[in-house]
Amino acid sequence: MSENRSKFIFDGNDVCLDFINTDIVDRGKRVDLLEDYGDVVSWLTEAGCIDPGTAERMLKLGDNESLKMLKKVREFRKKLMDMIQALSQGKPLRRSHLEPVNEILKEDTTYSNLILINGNARQITHSSSTILDPRLTIAHAAAELLTKKDLTLVRKCSNPECVLYFYDESKNHARRWCSMDRCGNRMKAALHYRKKKDRSTGSINR
């Protein structure tokens, strides 16, 4: 039996970065993994941000409301991406980076409880609002990243054709790739090929 594989990427070591990594490049083309509002709910579920009951309630939005929320989620992702891009380049955090997050957090009225996911406890935040805004969870994740983590460890994949980000928790903070399978092995193979070709060219010219 074939194993169902998620279309989402969870290699960022951080919920906020994994959310940003729903906008990818595949075979040289930009691809939005959040194709519709259902994908947003699926991502939140797979990321362990919401429980199945909350997901079911979120999916009850009408078509027009779903389209509007999808647009808001994508716009919020773009603002977070601009912030993360700046941080990965060593630029300082600016007040303008915080404003989109604060704009959402100020509307929040929530309560929390713990659930088990793969044997591990996870704190889930629920909105008491009748309209469940998926951006709330991401805003909290962004706040967690900005206030409790070392922002100098926010990195972009070293593959120039890749747009994914990660939080470097590796030993000596030497991680370079979004993942070895996706970019690391490919870039190492390309470097090996170039070196081999340069040596071959050099021997012919001598």
Topology:
Elements: H1 15-20, E1 23-26, E2 29-32, H2 37-46, H3 52-58, H4 63-88, H5 95-105, E3 110-117, E4 120-127, H6 135-148, E5 154-156, E6 165-167, H7 180-205
Can you describe this structure?
The protein is of the alpha+beta class and 206 residues long. The protein has one domain: Jann2411-like fold. It has seven helices and six strands. The chain has helices at 15-20, 37-46, 52-58, 63-88, 95-105, 135-148, 180-205, and strands at residues 23-26, 29-32, 110-117, 120-127, 154-156, 165-167. The protein has a two-stranded antiparallel sheet. A two-stranded antiparallel ribbon has the order 3-4. The chain starts with 14 loop residues before the first helix and ends with a helix. The model has no long low-confidence stretch (mean pLDDT 86).
**DSSP helix fraction:** 40-55%
Strand order of the largest sheet: 1-2
Unreliable stretches (pLDDT < 50, length at least 5) are none
The number of domains is: 1
What radius of gyration results from the CA coordinates? 20 Å
Percent range for β-strand residues: 5-15%
CATH architecture: Orthogonal Bundle
User: Roughly how many Å apart are the termini?
Assistant: 57 Å
Q: Under the CATH scheme, which class? A: Mainly Alpha
Note the overall shape.
globular
Secondary-structure element sequence? HEEHHHHEEHEEH
Characteristic terms for this protein:
15% strand; two-stranded antiparallel sheet; 7 helices; 206 residues; Jann2411-like fold; alpha+beta
